[in-house]
Amino acid sequence: MMKKIIRYALIGFLLGMAIGNFIAFFFALMSGSAQLFSASMISRFGSETVAFIIHTILSGIHGALSFSGVIFYEIEEWGLAKATFMHCLLINASFLINGLYLEWIPSDLSSILVSTSIITVMFFIIWIIMHTRCKREVRDLNQLLQKEKDEGKE
Amino acid sequence: MKKIDIEFKEDSRQQDIKVIITAEKMDDEVRELIKRISDPFSSGFSVYDEKGAVVVLPCDKIISISSDKRKLKVIADNGVFELRSSLQDVEKQLSSLSFIKISRYEIINLHKVAKFDFSISGSLRIEMNNGMQTWASRRNIGEIKRRLMRKDLDL
Question: What CATH number belongs to B43-153?
Answer without folding.
Answer: 2.40.50.1020
